[in-house]
Design brief:
The protein has a four-stranded mixed beta sheet with strand order 2-1-4-6, with no helix packed on it. The protein has a four-stranded mixed beta sheet with strand order 3-8-7-5, with no helix packed on it. It has one helix spanning about 125-130, and strands at about 10-15, 20, 25, 35-40, 45-50, 70-75, 85-90, 100-105, 115, 120-125, 135-140. By secondary structure, it is mainly β. It has a single domain (about 10-110), classed as Immunoglobulin-like. Helix content is about 5%, strand content about 35%. The protein is built from one helix and eleven strands, in the order E-E-E-E-E-E-E-E-E-E-H-E.
């Protein structure tokens, strides 16, 4: 039996100085590797939930690897086939959660349904993923 490399999905962040995940989402199988390519602006990737997409869920956080002004590559191995949410943090804005710095693995149909978390509602539409890269448009009630 020979070892085959796992499929890798490359996600560019801050390409040409634009703070966006490119692409904004991917469909991946269990065991696939998501390689986040963080380009030059002291970025980190943090896993969150669909209910609270701007708060770490404690599962994956690249801040432990430190920040760098150089290109950094961070790998995440897909373990769950359900939707998995991530956001990017800039070193100079550790509490920031900007619209373009959000990413989802295996969005499925869930990105079309509104989700509620306490007093916040996150309206999600497939068109918002395609045009702005952000499925999370926060509306406070």
């Amino acid at each position: 039996m020979t070892d085959r490399p796992l499929p890798t999905h490359v996600v560019q962040i801050n390409t040409d100085g634009v703070d966006l995940f490119q692409p904004h989402w991917v469909n991946a199988a269990r065991g696939d590797v998501i390689r986040f390519a963080l380009h030059g602006r002291k970025l980190a990737i943090v896993q969150s939930t669909g209910e609270d997409p701007c708060r770490p869920n404690g599962q994956f956080d690249s801040r432990s690897q430190g920040h760098s002004d150089r290109d950094v590559y961070v790998n995440y191995t897909v373990g769950d086939l359900g939707p998995t949410f991530f956001y990017g943090i800039l070193a100079d804005e550790p509490q920031g959660c900007h619209a373009g710095l959000r990413f989802i693995v295996n969005p499925g149909d869930d990105i079309q349904r509104p989700q509620q978390a306490s007093q916040k509602t996150y309206q999600e539409t497939k068109s918002s993923w395609n045009t702005t890269g952000s499925a999370w448009r926060r509306i406070r009630r």
